[in-house]
Structure formats: C-alpha cells, structure tokens
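Bug #77: duplicate submission created two jobs. Keeping one. Sequence:
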Amino acid sequence: MEIKLREMTYGDVYDIYEANIGNVKKYFYDFGDLESAKSWVRLAMKDVRCNIKREYCVEVDGKFAGLFGFWLDGGDSTEVSLWLSPCFQNKGVAKHALQLLEEVILQWGIFCINYMADSENAISQKLALSCGYIPMHLDAITNANFFYKELGNTTR
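Kept job's structure:
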C-alpha cells in the first residue's frame, strides 16, 4: 500500500465530495451537495493562497483517501487538521499520513504541533497517542481533548 500526500487543488472537489457522501460524522463537514463542497474547497484554497493554511490530499495507491492540513501563523507551532474517509480507516493510513505531514511541517520551520480530538472520537485520540502526542487537557467548551508534540531538534 503506497500512501502519500500532495497539495490539494480545485480539481479535488469531486473526490472530496464523493468521499463524504453518507460518510460524515460530526468531526468533518457535511457538505450536503456538490455546491457546498465547491464553496469549502474555494475557501480552503484561498487560505492556501494567503499563506494561512496548507491543505494536503492523502492518497492510497493513487486514490483519494482524505485531507490533512496545518495552519500557518508565523510562529514555530501549528495546529493540524485531519480527515480520512471511513473506507481507509483502521488500516494504518492515518498514522502514516500524519507522519508524512510532520515531515512537511518541519520543512516549514515549525517544531511544535497541537492536535485536537473530539472527546467522543476515541480513534482520533488513539492516533494522537500512537504517534507520540502528549495529552494536555480537555476543553469543556469545545468538548475536545488537546495534545501536542515537539518535532526535530527543539533547541532553538
């Protein structure tokens, strides 16, 4: 199984939409229709053009599997966003893709990753722990567990 990341493009909207039909839990966007998916991709691409965020498609053997991204705020830390189509879950894809994303993040000179997982999303929390993320706290307002991880040489 070949897993890779590539930068998201406008052309990915159809794959993103199709991967979400009937598969969305509360942890990702429920587009409802193709136009909603197009609007989301347009906004995400605007963030990319403005250097606010980086968004990557996860591919497994050349097939669209999900979206992983991270925010750029000019500092040495970031928050990641992850979504993987259910048909690729529980196969090691998310763990490998997150490790690939960490390599990309390091190339941007970012050394600390913040990871947020809904408190009801046990699989996401397990992924964070299995990738070496350290639990920080549960936010009572967002009902999310926060984790962090330092990358590379942290003596800056």
